Amino acid sequence: MDIKYLQLLAKEYPNVETVASEIINLNAITCLPKGTELFFSDIHGEYEAFLYQLRSASGEIKNKIDQEFCKTVTEQERIQLSRLICYPEQVLSEVTFSKVQLREWKKITIYRLVHMCKTVSSKYTRSKVRKKMPKDFAYIFDEFLNVTDDMNQEYYYAKIIDTILDIQMEDNFIIAICELIRKLSVDRLHIIGDIYDRGPRPDIIMEELHNYQDVDIQWGNHDISWMGAAAGNRALMANVIRMAISYNNFDVLEDGYGINLRALSNFAAETYKEDDCKQFMPHVHDRNQFDPVDFLLAAKMHKAITIIQLKLEGQLLNRHPEYSMEDRRLLEKINIEKNSVAIDGKEYPLIDCNFPTVNTESPLELSQEEQYLMDVLAHSFHNSRLLHKHIRFLYAKGSMYKKINGNLLYHGCIPMTEEGEFYPVSFGNKDYKGVELLDFLDVMVNKAYFHWDNTKEQEEARDFLWYLWCGSNSPLFGKSKLSMFENYFIKGSKGKTEIYNPYFRLIQQEEICKKILKEFDLDENTSHIINGHVPVRLKEGESPIKGNGRLFIIDGGLSKAYQPKTGIAGYTLIYSSRHLSLAEHKPFCPEKEDHLIGCAPALKVVETMPTRILVGDTDNGTIIRERIKELRILLNHYRDGIIKETKQK
Ligand SMILES: O=P(O)(O)OC[C@H]1O[C@](O)(COP(=O)(O)O)[C@@H](O)[C@@H]1O
Ligand SMILES: [Mn+2]
């Protein structure tokens, strides 16, 4: 081993005693049960439901409360305790007792919370628990968690609680301990893409994730679309604005990210003055808390930005014949005299033929006003601090795929041929497929945002994010086309079908799932693939479990817009030291008083581990063993006098 590396290590562990105690500590950690991992996908801006599922650890907290207190505490009180752990500020503000009763209630509540905290921390080392503790109460928590049943200790414990109440710090204490219980209930969070679009406030979700310690994200097509918009791709800027307006989500744009929509609003009101914009009515009414927008004006803005997007996409496709998507330059395929459009060789009548800004000579050219309003929007995207904070976070924690503890996570698919071979996708002069394809795309995604030199290469990478959003060979999209134009302008369902990549059919076969796992260098007999992207239509008898349990699709429709299709409100996957379970969520209805009672997910164990999984069996266990090896070498170097010890005072 490199002596220079050992000398660096010696700075952290300067003598035999410090090395020895770290070796003992690390060995002990490998024998603890592995922490619980929670998997989410396709959150789609539904911040209320997501925050509840995250804070309740997908029902795990209530289960633990039931296990601990089912014999001594009523169901009603157990529900109240779980609600308190999720939303302490709110529950504390709601309790109505007399002064004496309130003190009693708070005292008992603190005892119960401390008990819960001990239960959920039992899997971790003291040091790990300390790291998760809110700083303000760290000392008291430490005392509580390590108190024994000895009589004097009990007295000491009661004294601390009385003092907390006497000095009126109990609410702060309760809020802090609830946060600690939540943090200890989930060791690691995996987000398998699509945080953005459709639902009202993805920015609030991003803020919550930003404050979370251990999280990884696998980018979804909707996330990539926002990343591209933030990187400066104007077609994607138009796309994210169009999606937001189509769901009447002005708050995320204006209040959340400070995007200035005034130029768009003025332009739309003027240009589409005589147009009822029927095809462009937002899907949702009354959504915005801040500055609600007139519904008809929203429809006009929606149409205005859609036309701009179609122009910008056409221009982008002109720059990139290699995408082989000329057939998507649909504004050029409109026949104004006949009021029709040619798609895939067929003529379809248009249901909306009012295109006041489209110049038939050069349909893809922006009018002067459109150009101006795009400049205004681009300026906002460039300068939104919060947007860039969130996008940087997506980059820092995100990737095209992740391998972790025997699971392979990615949002959409690995493009395949009908025969089940990895589909080769050409970029430049090279073909990429399988794992190589995803690795290559990861580099491209990073280039698009982080190379600030505005070279042609970066421009290409930025345009490429648009391809990842909707290109047929994009693993994040995985469909033959995105029928945006067709959905707005063609009547009925003809010509609108988006055909899924063969992957989505082939994954029913265990052999195909095993082939993918092998491609990613994972054990084909024990590992799993976890995907999102395609809503699982439970209502129609579809199952989230594919390939004989080798693959899970956990997009069950957290997005409200998709719940009528799926019949439920999403899945989360929970991987504890004993089980892999699917939590099937019911729609989140905060307007109902007892919603948290009806809201508990149905839990289904999909795999029981042959023996309890320990930290030593995880990826982190491998890293720890490596570290122990290095520390042992350092220990020997101290003993042989090759490296000199520094004694601490
Ligand atoms: O239902 P919406 O929000 O109008 O969006 C429909 C579009 O969204 C997509 O499904 C892509 O989004 P997903 O990644 O969530 O599936 C397109 O294929 C489709 O055309
Ligand atoms: Mn998706």
UniProtKB/TrEMBL annotation:
Keywords: Carbohydrate metabolism, Hydrolase, Manganese. Its cofactor is Mn(2+). This is Fructose-1,6-bisphosphatase class 3. Belongs to the FBPase class 3 family. InterPro entries: FBPtase_class3 (IPR009164), Metallo-depent_PP-like (IPR029052). It is an enzyme of class 3 (hydrolase). The gene is fbp. One of its GO terms (biological process) is gluconeogenesis. It catalyses: beta-D-fructose 1,6-bisphosphate + H2O = beta-D-fructose 6-phosphate + phosphate. Pathway: Carbohydrate biosynthesis; gluconeogenesis. Its EC number is 3.1.3.11. The lineage of its organism: Bacteria, Bacillati, Bacillota, Clostridia, Lachnospirales. One of its GO terms (molecular function) is fructose 1,6-bisphosphate 1-phosphatase activity.
